[in-house]
Amino acid sequence: MVVFGRLADMFGRRSMYLWGLATYTGASLLLGFSPDEWYVVGLRVVQAAGGAMLLTNSAALLTDAFPRRHLGRGMGVYIASFSVAQLVGPTLGGFLTHRFGWQWVFWYNVPVGLICLAWGWVTLRRTEGSARDRGIDLPGNLLVLVSLGGLLFGLSQAGDRGWTDPVVLGGVVVFAGLVPVFVRVERRSRHPVVDVGLFADRVFGLNLLASFLSTVARMAVVLLIALFYQAVHGEDPVSAGLKVLPLSVAMMIASVCAGPLHARLDARTVGLLGNVTGTVGLVVLLSCISADVGYVPICAGMVLVGVGAGMFLPATATALLDELPAHRVGIVNAMRLMVQNAGVVVSTALALSLVTGPLPASLRPEVFAGTLSRVSPADVGHLVTGYRLTLGVLTAVSLLAVLASFGGRRKAGGEDLRSQPETLASTPG
Question: Up-side HSE of residue 334: CA atoms within 13 Å toward CB?
């Protein structure tokens, strides 16, 4: 993502976005003809590259298209579209697979992609890249790939292997060891892949930290509640999935409705209110979780978490991107997405390892495989203990996100990043 964000700043976001659409659509077409699983794996990598081109440029294109006073509304609709996709995607995918075969899960993307490609070609405004700052930081890109790749792979194994497993610890050690090397390389680079000087701005750094912490605190909630209804109440995956729909619906509605708040409050204040709301939702879930809890308090907690996320995500995206000079928007948006994706991995690994900690070791593989059905009465108490511990930790992380959001508000009359000089990482030397 960081690479494509940098390339978009250099050569223009419209071109990179359309190339991403074409790559994703072409890979989807070929995936349906895959003769074996290795072709699927390889083409999914190509498809992921196309998706990275799309994601790193979507919010950046909105920043170009919307005037500053309306950017919050545009971001709200953009974030809401992800909630719609979460609601429609699994149902549509299941229907297509059952009725026509697995190939149509990929082939469905082809007509949609072609329509979007034609629409984007006609409607997207042409933007010029930064001619004065064209260059690829190969050492920096390699360090990002190795350090983040190692960290995310290690964390993705934590739920299954445990936090003390050599693979998990190795990923963390590789990341920690390469970070200072990366910072040193980027400070000396004429064309840094990440402008580390941006982190000298307290507001920017705290908002990026709040984005990470908020993602860690909220992203595992859907998984946790669905697993709760499967394991404790013995419900099938479809029924458990329906139980968590209120969170996505609340997030979708809040993303759209929070837009008008940006006209009265600055984006960072809206983000702070969203983090507070989400924290209250986690407190509700923590206080009510038990083996015999009814659905109403669980639903209320999920709705508050969804509303908080729906307010926070577009507000933070607006706050991070709105005050940037045009030639930095792509790379900063890529950094934002990279941080959020890391938060998703950490959230899932942390939640699964904590919630399964009190369970017998023989049951944990079923949790990680998603095949755990109703547990025995003797194990229900252990599972509830794990849920209380997990929700308590997520609530604490959410409180830290609130503090980061509170500290990340820019004082009235303070300089934003557009009015500040280029940082050391952006200048030769």
Answer: 26
